[in-house]
Amino acid sequence: MGKGRDKELIRLRDEALCRRYYYWTEVQRLRFDDALRILSEREFFISEERIMTIIRKKSREGIDKSIKPLPKIKVPKLTAAQLELFKTL
């Protein structure tokens, strides 16, 4: 018997996590960050970062085509000159 967690159990957990992510985001129409919080704090007890890693991995594997991971959000950097374009009244 090998050391570590059972790979089959991890695979089943990841599939269940993807199904639940789909349920919360598509069926219940929650925002993805609210769905991640529910999955993390109430259902699977793992970090939100780990959940997104699992969803990205599963979507790359192509097992479930209906689950699409959200891209990493990049915050735009505004300069003072750009902010001056929006003059206040």
Structural write-up:
- By secondary structure, this protein is an all-alpha fold.
- It has one domain (1-89).
- It is 58% helix and 0% strand.
- The chain has four helices and no strands.
- Helix 1 (7-27) crosses helix 2 (32-44) and helix 1 packs across helix 3.
- The longest helix is centred in the N-terminal third of the chain and has 21 residues, at 7-27.
- The model has no long low-confidence stretch (mean pLDDT 83).
Concise synopsis of the structure shown:
The protein is mostly helical.
- Please tell me what the overall shape is: elongated
Number of helices: 4
State the helical fraction. Answer: 55-70%
Q: List the uncertain runs.
A: none
* Total domain modules: 1
Largest sheet: number of strands, sense, barrel closure: none
Question: Can you write the helix and strand succession as a string?
Answer: HHHH
Overall mean pLDDT stands at 83
Strand content: under 5%
By helix and strand content, what is the structural category? mainly alpha
Number-wise, the strands total 0
How far apart are the first and last residues' alpha carbons, in Å?
A: 72 Å
Q: Roughly how many Å is the radius of gyration?
A: 18 Å
Produce the secondary structure layout.
Elements: H1 7-27, H2 32-44, H3 48-61, H4 80-83
Helix pairs in contact: 1-2, 1-3
